[in-house]
Design brief:
Blueprint lengths: L10 H17 L4 H16 L4 H6 L11 H13 L3 H9 L4 H6 L4 H12 L4 H9 L11 H19 L6 E2 H16 L6 E4 L1 H4 L4 E2 L2 E6 L3 H9 L4 E7 L3 E6 L4 E7 L4 H9 L2 H13 L3 E2 L4 E2 L6 E2 L4 H7 L15 H7 L13 E5 L10 H10 L4 E7 L11 H17 L4 E9 L10 H4 L4 E5 L8 H13 L5 E2 L17 H11 L2 E5 L9 H9 L4 E4 L10 H11 L13 H9 L8
Parallel strand pairs: 4-7, 11-12, 12-13, 13-14, 14-15, 15-16, 16-17
Antiparallel strand pairs: 1-3, 2-4, 5-6, 6-7, 8-9, 9-10
Helix pairs in contact: 1-2, 1-5, 8-9, 13-15, 20-21, 21-22, 22-23
This protein binds 2'-deoxyguanosine-5'-triphosphate, calcium ion (CA) and zinc ion.
Zinc ion binds next to loops.
Length: about 600
């Protein structure tokens, strides 16, 4: 039975259905708790590695955290009838197109309902018409500015849609599945080596699929064992040494198998990138070599050299080993030839984290739990940079609350052994470039990060003016998530990265690589450019809970893709040396 017939819906199908229920309920003004229950179910189904329908049919759905009787009943109903009566009723009540309108930045459920009821907007095109005809400005709480803003958001929406519906997923959401599949491969008899390759191995921020390679003398056996893994929903294609499959999370998986003696050749080929491989082949050709996924053919002799390891592939071409994350045809082959590849920064080089939140604003843990988690990770220092007052909805700190928080942080620091706890702020850069807190408040802090959280649609000139003003403030030590992108959800605002880097050098301000897996901002490319221009980077987690310290690893990955070394990153220094920068009044990094 295929996974698509109603009786055995795939996990992504179930996730969509429950997300749709959650969306309609928010249009309906239902209680946040009820909405959250469906949202959580959708997220659980979307990421669960084995079949949810199968689990439900065995009566084991409620063993999963967050699945109560209401959710279970609906899953079973959907499996039995192909419908959920509760959802069908909701669908009758609202035009379908409203769900997309609700996703548009700046809209949300309340406003969507409002434009539907008072301006007859039923879908995105209807919204566009209403904006153009000036009918949105008459809706209570909206105005001409809103119309312009919505038109820009619609344009961005269409541009994204035109780019193709190719779904790329965050590296962090795919990696655990890939690791599980590799582990499963490694224990199949005859398998001597297995890895994931492709963009995942190159540490790209987003990936399209999972590429797997394995070494074995019995590919048929390996493919058979792989096909029946509980993570694999279906096998689409099957050759003698390769197969294409799909996981229960809807992710494509390509598996290729070679003899152990050629494993290095295959791993190198399948890791890519395609651009790197093309450049490598060109380089090899000029020297008379030929490379394939099975061997390297020597010039003159024509001898075929198989490589069990990847290092042998590069060595056989007279090149230093090129780490996967540098394989993007960005000068790495020339550097490998010249012996000048960078000595890339590593996670263990980071001594402190300078951007984390607590439950004083939108964090989910208190100061102490965050500090303990940081200490657990081996960090020497941790600086709290909670939000400032203009983000009132999440309890942004007023000067008064900031003072109280500083006291709490000082008391914690005195109490805790083994980690230095510092007081900072992520101060908002307001739409006119002023900072959200007065200088005398900022002066009391150990460290100040300035970030943009509003006015994303402003023209470049205006954005740069805001950043310039902020960076010229003597208390500001760093710019947080400098381009504001949210991967797959929001384009960066109009930042001129070159000018930003120059400004960073001129004012001695650090530029952050924010390690949140959906930010990774600066990007590798921007960070590389900025560092080349003399700027200094800080790599921070932007953690909102203890588990988020994992973001430091993602930040390091992005930095490595950007060729960064320890000397390019300020928080590889002990705090006293970093603080020294500040004391030297010129606010200049010491690099
Ligand atoms: P993705 O999947 O879009 O996130 O990016 P990749 O790099 O994983 O691309 P994918 O999955 O299409 O292919 C995996 C690797 O296989 C790729 O990085 C290099 C190799 N490869 C695929 N197609 C070609 C090709 O046409 N030429 C060369 N030289 N290599 C290729
Ligand atoms: Ca891939
Ligand atoms: Zn922020």
């Amino acid at each position: 039975m295929s996974a698509n017939v109603p009786h055995m819906p795939s996990n992504p199908d179930l996730a969509l259905v429950f997300q749709e229920i959650a969306d309609y309920l928010s249009l309906d003004g239902e209680s946040p708790y009820r909405i959250l229950a469906y949202k959580k179910a959708a997220a659980l189904f979307a990421t669960h590695p084995v079949s949810i329908a199968d689990r439900a049919s065995r009566g084991k759905l409620r063993e999963l955290a967050g699945v109560g009787p209401a959710i279970e009943a609906k899953v079973l109903e959907y499996m039995e009838t192909g419908e959920i009566a509760f959802l069908e009723k909701l669908r009758e009540r609202y035009p379908e197109g409203l769900l997309q309108v609700m996703q548009l930045p700046g809209m949300g459920p309340k406003k969507t309902r409002l434009v539907w009821e008072s301006a007859g907007v039923a879908d995105l095109r209807g919204l566009e018409r209403a904006c153009r005809e000036g009918r949105i400005r008459d809706v209570p709480g909206m105005g001409e500015k809103t119309e312009a803003k919505l038109l820009r958001a619609l344009e961005a929406w269409d541009a994204r849609a035109a780019k193709g519906a190719e779904l790329r997923r965050l590296h962090s959401s795919v990696e655990p599945q890939a690791v599980r599949l590799v582990e499963a491969l490694r224990v199949i008899p005859t398998v001597t080596a297995a890895d994931y390759a492709g963009s995942l191995r190159r540490l790209r921020a987003t990936v399209r699929d999972i590429d797997l390679v394995a070494a074995s003398t019995d590919p048929a056996l390996v493919m058979k064992a792989f096909s029946i893994l509980p993570e694999i929903a279906e096998v689409d294609e099957h050759g003698d040494t390769k197969l294409a499959a799909r996981t229960h999370t809807g992710l494509g998986v390509d598996l290729r198998i070679v003899d152990p003696e050629s494993y290095g050749n295959l791993l190198q080929h399948f890791t890519g990138s395609a651009d790197h491989n093309v450049a490598l082949r060109g380089y090899a050709q000029r020297l008379g070599y030929k490379i394939s996924e099975y061997h390297v053919e020597q010039p003159t002799s024509g001898r075929l050299v198989t490589c069990a390891t990847e290092a042998e592939v590069y060595a056989s071409l007279g090149l230093d080993y090129i780490p996967p994350e540098l394989r993007e045809d960005q000068g790495e082959i020339e550097a490998a030839e010249a012996g000048s590849l960078p000595d890339l920064i590593e996670l263990s080089d980071l001594r402190g984290d300078l951007h984390v939140h607590s439950d004083w604003t939108d964090g989910r843990a208190d100061l102490e739990d965050m500090a303990l988690a940081a200490r657990e990770r081996g960090l020497e220092y941790l600086c709290f940079c909670d939000h400032s007052q203009s983000l009132a909805m999440i309890g942004g700190l007023t000067p008064e609350r900031l003072l109280t928080q500083i006291e709490a942080i000082r008391a914690l620091d005195a109490r805790l052994e083994g980690i230095r706890v510092l007081a900072g702020i992520e101060v908002d850069i307001l739409t006119d470039g002023r900072l959200d807190l007065p200088d005398d408040a900022l002066a009391r802090l150990d460290y100040v990060t300035a970030s943009i959280h509003s006015g994303f649609g402003q023209p470049q000139e205006k954005i740069m003016e805001r950043l310039t003003k902020a960076m010229r403030n003597p208390h500001v030590r760093a710019v947080g998530h400098p381009t504001g992108r949210l991967i797959g959800r929001r384009e960066p605002y109009e930042v001129d990265v070159e000018a930003l880097a120059q400004l960073a050098v001129e004012t001695g301000t650090y530029l952050e690589i924010n390690g949140s897996p959906d930010r990774l901002d600066l990007t590798a490319e921007a960070a590389r450019r900025a560092v080349a221009l003399g700027a200094v980077v800080v790599i921070c987690s932007d953690a909102h809970s203890p588990g988020d310290f994992e973001n430091l690893r993602f930040g390091i990955q992005e930095a490595r893709r950007g060729w960064l070394q320890t000397r390019d990153v300020a928080n590889t220094l002990p705090w006293d040396e970093m603080a020294g920068d500040q004391a030297s009044s010129a606010k200049k990094p010491r690099f």
